[in-house]
Structures are given as structure tokens and as C-alpha cells.
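Follow-up to my post from last week.
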Amino acid sequence: MDCNHFERLLESLERDAPMVANLRAAALQHAESCGDCRARLAAARLLRLELQALASEDEKLQTPARVKDNLLSAFREQGPRPARLGSRLSWAVVAAAVVLAGWLLAEQPWRNTGSPVAPRIQVAKSASLPQLGPVAPKVRAENKIALTKRVRRPPRPTGMRTSADTADDFVALSSGGSWYPMGDGMVVRVQVPRSAPALVGLPISSGDVSGTVTADVVLGEDGVARAIRFVQPGEGKSRNQNFDFTQN
Amino acid sequence: MHLESNDGDLLRRMAAGDEAAFTTLYKRYQGGIYRFARQMTGGASLAEEVTQEVFLTLMREGRSFNASRGSLRAWLYGVARNCTLRCLERERPYVSLETEGGGENAPELVADPCIPEDGLAGLGSRETVEQVRRAVLALPPSYREVVVICELHELGYAEAAQILGCPVGTVRSRLHRARELLALRLEALRARPDGKVAVAKPCHRW
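User reply:
Got it. Predicted complex:
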């Protein structure tokens, strides 16, 4: 064994780490015959003992009690950390926007390729969800909307004109031409391009399509958007009710 | 082993507001974290600050701990290491070793009966322990941390690599170099009657 080989074994030797018996014997034999390597091994062992002495001494160190007191106070003030509802909601909004955009791109409802008569969307259990009436999901496919053309809105049934009932303003959305029933869900408010109403068959009131408008999107439990309505900003009122449905 | 002693279970309970679970985790790890910070910074107040910050981080972000990436101990040591680096950067861009170890915050040192008072030279004596402490503090931080973690806390190379965010081979090579430096510094310390290292090392180079 030469000094280089011994150097590689030095760590195992000074730690008394397990190693092949013959190798250990050879290394120790080399240390007996080589003064430098013997001195290195002795120095390494001494350093280990000194470090162990320091570690043993520092075992006595304990965190001051006031640190624990401060932390426990902070813990009590904090209380149980709820799930990040805000974060989840924001993700839901983003998901809704993405789904809506994807649907609009895929379906291009203004081309009138969807089902002319959509089935009724079933909304159950969730009190926050508007009940969609049988008229609403008609998707207004008969309104062959061009962006610059205004059409007359079909008259609403009298029973749907109450102030509490805004469900008739939701427009049902399909996915790939299919309609999905839903159980629970949620309504999220999103900002969409001002031109978005035209994409679902609603007229836009002016030539300016820049900026955004507020919309309520009905999301199913699966995150898929089921319906949408447009809202006048700041009033919480369906924008659909205020459209200028003037006849051409 | 009881379920209560499992770190993951304690974390879940802590996240649900169980103060006893947090206290158990604190008792389990505070000693090591405090000693690590103290051995890295040399100061009691900084070590206290680091320890507090580590457990506040545990409160805030404990639910993001991923057991598949390593032990909770390694995670806490990693947080402690980052806090220590920030504290050193903020407080002491340059460390004067003349101020280390002898201040009012210096620990009360008592001869350890476990260290034999034999020909290997009073290893447990206050003077020797303080010399070693100064030599460790005089190391550049990247070497100091491997000495503290692997030698003083006796954590394995793999866990040290998790804490330091580097390969195991890097831990080995740094430790090898650190031990060489330590031996040299201790030799220099022994050669000086006042037992102080002659040079101050910049502390901000990592």
C-alpha cells in the first residue's frame, strides 16, 4: 500500500468505519512504516475527538424558553389554517375562463353548428345556483348572429320577468356538441372580452369591442362550464336584460 | 411506535390547530436547530432568531412538506441554514473572530466527564473546546456547515446533501477539505498563547 491509497482510506480508519479486514490491516501496517501517514492518522483521530468534545459540550445548549412561548403565542393566534379557499377560487375562475375560451373556440356557436334545442340543465342541491328554465338553454341557435347584425330577442314568458328570477338570462353552453347534466356546482364571476356575448349568440351594443365585460359562469363539479350570463358591471344585474334588442 | 410520534401525523394535526402536535415537533427538533444556528453564527441571539423563524416557517408552510423528498429534520435544517445565511448576510458581512466565543452569550462550559483526561490532552477542557469552536467558526461558511452537520450533529452524507442541496460527493469533498482546514487552524491556535486565530474571514462568500 502506498501513501495515496492510505489517504483514501484515512476517513474510514479514523472513523473506525467497517472495512475489509485485510485492507484495514494493510493500512495500519503502512502507517507503522510511514511517519507521515502515521502522523496524518493521529491528527485525524485527534480532530475527531476534539469535535466530539465540542459536540458533547454543545449538547447542553437549549433554546431559551421565551422562544417556545413566542411560538406558542403565534400558533394560538394563527389557529387552524384553513384550506386556501381564495387560491382555489382563483384557480376555479382561471379554469372557468380557460374552459369557456376553449368552448368558444371549439364550438364557434355563431356558425350555428350546435344542437338547435339544448336539453334542460339540471341544477340541484346548491342553493347558490340559479335554476335554469326550459327556455334558456335554447342557446339562441336560431339567432344567426353576425357581429354587426342586431336581432330581435324572442319575447320572454311572463312568468320569468320577476326581479328575483334571473335564470332566464343564462345561456347554456355545450361541449363538443354534447350537453352534460350537472348536480352541484358554483357560479363564478369572470371578466371576458367585450366581444364574448356575440360568441354565444347575443348582440353587442356598440361597435367598440375592446375591453372586458363581467360574466357569471355556472361551473359543474367537474369544472366544466355549463352556462353563462353577462352582467352589468357594478350593479349585479344581468347585462342581457339591458341589451338593445332593436329590430333590424 | 405510536402514531403520535410520526412526523407526518404530527404535521397534519398541527395544520388542524393541534397545539400539542406543534409542541411535540418543537421539542423534538428545537435542540438540534438551535445548536446548528449557534454553531454556525457563534451568537445566542442570532441562533434564537433563527430557531424562531424555522418554527414559524413550519407553522406557515408545514403542510407543503413532502416526505418523499426527505425527512422533516432535513427540511427544518434546510430552513435553518437559509435563515442562518440571511442573518449572517444582514448582521455581519465580516466576522471578527476576536469577538467570537467570549461574549456574554458564550455558553457556560463545564468539563465533560465522558472525555478522558488522558494523554490525548484534556480534550474536554474548556480551553480546548473553545479552541475548536473558534476554529470551526473561522472556517468559510460552506465548509463550516458541513462540519457542523456531519461532525457535530453526526448526520449522514445523504441527509447533509438534502439539507445543503448538493450532491453527496460534494458533501464528501467539502468535508474532507474542511477537516484539513480545521486541522491547520487548530495547529495555529495551539501555537498561539492567546488561542485566537490571526485572520478574520469574510463571511459573505458562500
